[in-house]
Automatic annotation (TrEMBL):
Keywords: Membrane, Transmembrane, Transmembrane helix. The keyword Transmembrane applies. Residues 48-74 are annotated as: Disordered. The chain crosses the membrane at residues 21-43. The keyword Membrane applies. It comes from the Bacteria. This is Lipoprotein. It comes from Streptomyces rhizosphaericola.
């Protein structure tokens, strides 16, 4: 017969939970993201007249919104 000793109070059982430092890092990362989103909502758009590539307005272009083709050489 094989006899196995019961784990004593000093032995560590295998845990599947991540270490506390990982939880702290994830919490700080989430807090930083939430804070950045809150500041972005409070400040508003950085350049209100700025459009992404491929977006064209319905109205006539103003002088500040003229497209600039820098790669053509003309």
């Amino acid at each position: 017969m094989d006899q196995k000793a019961a784990p004593g109070p000093g032995t560590k059982a295998a845990r599947s939970a991540p270490p506390p430092a990982l939880w702290a890092f994830l919490f700080l990362l989430g807090a930083l993201f939430t804070g950045a989103c809150a500041v972005g909502q409070a400040v508003g758009p950085v350049a209100p007249g700025m459009h992404g590539p491929g977006l064209i307005g319905d109205g006539p272009a103003r002088d500040g919104e003229m497209p600039m083709d820098h790669g053509s050489g003309h």
